[in-house]
Structure formats: C-alpha cells, structure tokens
Amino acid sequence: MRYASANTNEQATNMSNRIPVSDFHAYPDAHGRFADYGGIFMPETLMPPLEELAAAYLAMREDPAFIAEFERDLKHYVGRPSPIYHAERLSAKIGGAQILLKREDLNHTGAHKINNTIGQALVARRMGKRRIIAETGAGQHGVATATVCARFGLDCIVYMGAVDIERQKINVYRMKLLGAKVVPVVSGSKTLKDALNEAMRDWVTNVADTFYIIGTVAGPHPYPMMVRDFNAVVGREARAQMLEQYGRLPDVLTACVGGGSNAIGLFHAFLNDREVAMVGAEAAGEGIASGRHAASLSAGRRGVLHGNRTYVICDDNGQITETHSISAGLDYPGVGPEHAFLKDSGRARYVGITDDEALAAFHELARTEGILAALESSHAVAQAMKLARELPKDQLILCNLSGRGDKDVHTIAAREGIEL
Amino acid sequence: MSQRIEQRFADLGQAGRKGLIPFISAGDPLPEATVAIMHTLVAAGADLIELGVPYSDPVADGPTIQHSSERAIARGVGIAQILGWVSEFRLTDATTPVVLMGYLNPIEIYGHARFADDASAAGVDGVLIVDVPVEEAETVALLREKGVREIFLVAPTTTDRRLAAIRARAEGFIYYVSFAGITGASQLDPLAVRARVEHIKQGGSIPVAVGFGVRDAASAVQVAESADAVVIGSALVATLAAATSRDAALAAAHAFLAPIRAALDQAVRR
Q: What is d(CA B64, CA B76) in angstroms, rounded to the nearest whole number?
C-alpha cells in the first residue's frame, strides 16, 4: 500500500527522499502524479470531462498553432515580457545580497494570474465550451478570468466567498464592469476553499457546456500541470533575462505560496538547475503556533483536498479547518501537489511569513522603490529581505513580485486604523 | 467475511421486491439518536442503510446534506464515533447491511490500514467514497482485503470504457447517480434513468441502486421500475433536520419511510 502510512510530515519526507529525482521536468506522470502527490480524486460525474480535458490539453501543448496563439496574446495583450528590476535602494538598505524583482505586477490586470486565464480560455474556446466558471479568493483570478472572457466573448460566472467579497470590494466591482456574474458563496468558511467547492458543484451540474478555469496549481489532473505550464513563462523568461542581464543564474528564487501558481511559474524552468536554491513563502498569519495561519506545507499534513493528494490543514477527524492570512489570495488550506513533491524531495524549502512581516515588507518596498506590492507578493518580498540579510553582497535573489497592491490599500488602511 | 449485501440482494430478488436504501448523515440531527434512527428505518422497511460520514467540503452534495454535515461536524462527529455506532447497531441487528458514504480525507487522516481493520470489526459492509474514482481505487484496497465492499458510482456521463473498468472492480452493488448534478436537486428523468440502468445491467449481474433526486414514494416507484434498489437521502435528511428531540426524529423517520416501502411493494405486485 503506497498511502497506508500515518500522516506525519517526517514520514512523508523520509519516504520520498529515498527516491532520487533525475529530471524534475518529467512530472507529473500520465495519472497526474508528482511522485506521491496529485492524482484525480473526483466524483465519477466529473471524471469523463476531466479525461476529455486532459486529452485535449495534452494535444494542444504540443501544437505549434496553439502555442503561437498563446504567446501572441501574452505579448500583445498581457504585455510580456515583464522586466527584472534590481531593487538597488532596498538591497543597499539591507546591506546584504542583491534583491531582483520579477515584475509580474506590471502585467495587464496587475498579476501573474492572467498568464493562466489566457491559456485556459484558449483551451476552452478550442474545446467549444462557451460558459466559463471560476473561483476566486482575493479576486485577482476572478478579474483575470472576467478579463479574458470579455476578450474572447465567453460567458463568465465567478464564485467568491461572502467573506472575501466583503474584503475585496474593488475587485468584485471590477469583475462586474468586465461583464462577469459574481456569485457569493455562503457555505462553510465562506472563503476560497468554499468558492472552489461551489464552482465544482456548478461544473457537476452543467458539465456539458461549461469549462472550469481553476486559478491555481491545485485541483484534479490535468489542472496542476496545465496551470503550471501557462505560468511557467515567468521562469522561462526570467532564466533568459538573468543570463542576458547578469550573465548568470540567480542564487536563490523566492515566491509566495498559497495554492502556489506564481511560485511554480517562477521555479519550474530552474528545477533542473540544482545550483539555484528555491524558497516558498507561505502565510504564517498570526504565527504558526497561534493556529491562525495558512501554511499547509510548513504546518499541515498529507491528505486529499479538491481532487489531489497534497498537504492540507485539517483536524484529527479530517475536516478541513479555517485558515487565516491578511492576504486573501494565500488563505487556502491546501497547496498544489507539485509543491508537496518539491518539499519532500528537498528541491525547494517552504517557510512561513507572518502578517506583520508581510506588512513591514510592503511598506519598505513602497518607500525604497516606489512599488506597492500585493499583500500576497509582500510575503515573498519579506522572505527575500530575510535571505538578503543572511547572504553576501554578490549573491542574487530573484523574487517574484506576483501582483500589484492597489487592491489591498483598503485592507491595509483598515488594519492601521486609517479611514479613507 | 460478511456477505450481508449479497445476501440481502439475493433475498430481494427471490421475493420479487425492490430494495429501499435510506441515507442519513451520521450524528444529525442528534448524535445520541443515530443508532435508534437506524433501527427505526429498518423497522419502517429499509433493506440497507447508508450512513453518511460528515465532511467539511462535500463537493457532490447540495445544501441539505452540506448543512447536515456542518451540524454533525460542529458536534465533533468523526469516524471513530461513527464506527462505534455501527458496532452498537450490530448488537441487535446482524442482517441489515450498513454502507458508509463519504469523502476521502477523513479516512486518509484516520489511516487506511486502521480504517480497514476498524470498519470491518465494527460490522461495516461497504464503503462508498465519493471522490475515489476507479482510477484511484488502489488507495483503499485494504478495505477489500478485510471483506468490506468497495461501492462505486456510475454517472450519466460515464463512458462505456469507464463502465467496464468500474464493473470489473465494483463489489456489492453499483450506485447509479440519476443525473449530472448534486444531491437533493430535482432533475429526475425516469425514462433516461431506465435506459441507463438497463445499459449498466446488461454487462453483468451486480445489482444497481439509483440515487440523487429520489424524494418520495412516487419518484421511488418510477426509479424502481428498472433499478434493483432506490436510495433516498436529502429528502429524509431534511425531514429529520426539523426534529427537535430524539423521539420526534424517530417518529419522523418512520413516518417518512414506511409509505415509500408500501408504495414500492404495491407497485411490484401490480
């Protein structure tokens, strides 16, 4: 029995560490497994459409016409490539290693999320599906989905937790301006995981004409692979830019990890460059010890959520528990299965960044570089600042600045007691 | 090794009767009433009992069972307690099959080996895990070794290739989901169900139970024209949810199920 062991992180790590990985780009396998993680744990009704999607997508990812269509939109609609910017004043102030920022915040709609929604909308269109559904937490994926639906003339329904609707009002209105219907989700904890549940219930009910655009590298196969592929442009671009601008690869990569799509997007092209270290920054909320966090990899256990085996945050009865983060986009009790695999194989490490650390980094970046980072991305910036303090001046840290912070100014003002 | 499911369907076949399978969420409306509700359902004509294991994120369930699960979870209901209830039920009922229905994560956290041992020891006859399709069935293979039947879903979307794989693996009975949707929705199309059930039965002798959308005597009779058994979940769960005491829950359970049993038996005799 592969999965019969108890659910402790130590055992999981030891089991997988026995298997040396020769090529990180060889995953997932045909069943959507990243070693012990991933897979397709879904109700039977959705299995045939998932098989259909996997077959269609596997053909498209090898199709030069599809790739050209995707790349054309990335260039002319999204505005790629996004630059790598040397945060010189921030680096000088810290006095350690150099912090470089991959500026995904400069993409159309203000985050990396559009890379994936463009890709999936093209897949949907080629499969003849005209009704698009999506879930969203912070609203960034919802906005990115509503945007591409407007761009391609598709119907768009976005499920969003009632709690998230309250804390992300601007993005809700933005989605409506783009012609999407936003459906509040009042079940469970009324946040991202419940929005995902409700989107799946919609899909199971409207399976014939509906395409579900999942916003992160989670869900059942082929989603973790497909969403990764569409975001992997970030790392491919960054790798070439590093060689061109600096004549070498970075020493460390860092990115925030909720579901993990911007992190896997940056990491993937570098996975076989063993000299490049990788650190994922999870939301430690009010601190791991407080129990109010969303750090699935750092403090969760092996389980199954939303169609894949991964690390989850749950109680002893296997009930998924409520998570907390100042950043709605990281407030998710699971994580993409490829990250679980990278953790167990030792290729990447994952650490927690608290709400306070992320806020401090937000302010520091704003004041030293004139950049308002998203609260999600501020976790990565905080981790980059920590690494910079530990490393010598000639080391290069490449940090994924995955989104811009305009959407978060109300949250930050409210937390700091400022009335706008 | 228990043969209760096979024995029950064999008995039904010989008697020319249709199986009636009520579903309840374990621990709802009152944890102390679950075992008594199971006995009451048997007295009212249940042939097999499906006991729902509550889960926080039930993606295939509609609001009725979602809320029922949330209430049970709020009372701390988990697998260990549910297996205790099955053991207690078995003290006075050695013949009615009990099937647990739920999602994978609670079992994953309980531990697969421990779950297979404890479910078998408690007298559980089958397990239907909604998010374990036939591709991932190896995940719960230990259940089979312990004599606990692996029950699988078949849906309207299921292709013939998948149906063959499910038939090759399925034990006990096949649970046919009558429409593409969530539990408790009202989209039942009896003619479509009949065509699909007959198609599923062509390939073998395993009994077929039909669930989703069966809510009362009339819909049960329609579905039983082709199915070997009917499953009634959300409508019963909603009825029980309104009960505010143990006695009220038992009375409601009996009053709900007995007329459906009578209608099924009468329809077959006609």
A: 19
> Tens digit of pLDDT for each residue in A216-240?
999 999 999 999 999 999 999 999 9
Rounded Cα–Cα distance for residues B136 and B166 (Å): 11
**Given CB atoms, is B165 within the 8 Å cutoff of chain A?**
no
Q: How far apart are CA A287 and CA A290, in angstroms?
A: 5
Q: Tell me, yes or no, if B58 comes closer than 8 A to chain A by beta carbon.
A: yes
Q: Tell me if A201 and B105 make a contact (CB, 8 A cut-off).
A: no
Decide if A4 and B105 are in contact by the 8 Å CB cutoff: no
φ, ψ of residue A64 to 5 degrees: the values are -60, -35
If you write DSSP's letter for every residue of A218-260 in order, what string do you get?
-SSTTHHHHHHHHHTHHHHHHHHHHHHHHSS--SEEEEEESS-
Work out the minimum CA distance from A209 to partner chain B, whole angstroms. 12
| Cα–Cα dist A235/A268, whole Å | 6
Residue A313, helix vs strand vs coil = coil
Tokens 């996975």 sit at which residue? Answer: A271
pLDDT band at B186 (very low <50, low <70, confident <90, very high): confident
Q: Rounded to two decimals, what is the model's pTM?
A: 0.95
Name the burial class of residue B200, with classes exposed (0-12), middle (13-18) and buried (19+) by CB atoms within 10 angstroms of its CB: buried
